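Hello support,

Our group uses your service weekly, and this is the first time we've seen a run hang past the timeout. The protein is Succinate-semialdehyde dehydrogenase/glutarate-semialdehyde dehydrogenase. I'm not sure whether the cause is the sequence or the server load. Input pasted verbatim:
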Amino acid sequence: MTADSALGLLRPETLDANEGLRVLNPANGALVAMVRRYDVDETAAMIDAADVARREWGARTAKQRSDVLRAWYDLMVAHGEDLALLMTLESGKPLGEARGEVKYGASFIEWFSEEARRAYGEVIPTFATDKRVLTLRQPVGTCAAITPWNFPLAMITRKVAPALAAGCSIVVKPAEATPLSALALETLAHRAGVPEDLFRVAPARKSSAIGDLFCTHPLVRKISFTGSTEVGKVIMAKAAGQVKRLSLELGGNAPFIVFDDADVDLAVAGAMASRFRNAGQTCVCANRFLVQAGVHDAFVEKLAAAVAALKVDDGVASPGAMGPLIDERAVERVSALVEQAVGEGARRVGEVHAVPADGAFHPPVVLAGVTEGMTIAGEEIFGPVAPVLRFDTEAEALRIANDTPYGLAAYVFTADAARQWRMMEGLEYGMVGVNDGLISTEVAPFGGIKESGFGREGSSHGLADYMNVKYCLVGGV
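Update from on-call engineer: The timeout came from a worker crash unrelated to the input. Re-ran successfully.
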């Protein structure tokens, strides 16, 4: 497995040695590839062609679409190592985590290849003896997606797979920093039998211009966006002009709540998996650790020890290490948040000091003594920092956890079954993990509430988000 073999998954016409996007390795700043960028007119032409292609695709039987998706899944599995290396080179994600994302991303294609055959309508008991009432589920139409750099492969498959399963077409604009995974997925999908115009990837230098196109093009009937709340609000406002269907997975501020009766070792393991995966650059990772007074000191001590034992390195050389942030700007932002927290009274109690001098690396760190009023308690950190707050009562923990405009994911560690139910019901979040720090799976609906967005990806709900329900009345029976 080499960089050349991995880049061989890209079609030659997607590379551009002169005017393309520069894809840099965050671990060392090296140039990985130059990728062709598409302007607004070229992307608009893709949308036009996609709208034509969806007619024939939507007319195929569910099993025919299912078989093509299954072939795409098989190709992803067969090329898993090359896909993982591409992801590591463009995002910095350690090779071990990248392999996990390939499997995770492929699972959505496998799942929706099966769900394609279960897009059931219904026959409703009639209100009159000479009439019949039924519903059909039909594809939304031509779709557009804008995806982030932190999960450059899975964020695409969990949008594209349900769109294709439902009978839609889709054009994807990947993040500027990580277009290689997207282009490789496009190549494999076309090899599997997905019509070329049905699914296209359009890297672009000016994201806002392509976003405006998606929001205003009359043939785009649905937009799926994963990214910041700020940008999500802009898309929502601009798409309102044509009343487009939206799925928005936006920012988060996930609380990780540890009660006195929790298994502290289990909680620390969950904290490490949730907070430091992908160097803390995940939408659902624990962002605030709320720990009850009785176990606070023990939890902080064990978490600090676990963090201090982390290895930070290039993700290719050390597949099991924690890798870099996406770029130097991200490092500067996270460093500023940490320094501000320390200035406000927080304490560093666990930190890795052996960090590569080159590349966009930030040392993992635990901050104790954090309080609600500190800036870091309200920010989505997106870096390897674990701020710990102390609380006394269950009511206090619930109040602090819900005191945010965001509502994506939350985590609770407690052995009390009754408390588990109270917290699951009381937390104002779209997803709640109990005694587990990893909640993402293709079989469950992924998504948030409040300013974290709406719509669901994964599960049968993910297919429904790409389909319209049509009510039909048959009279004269």
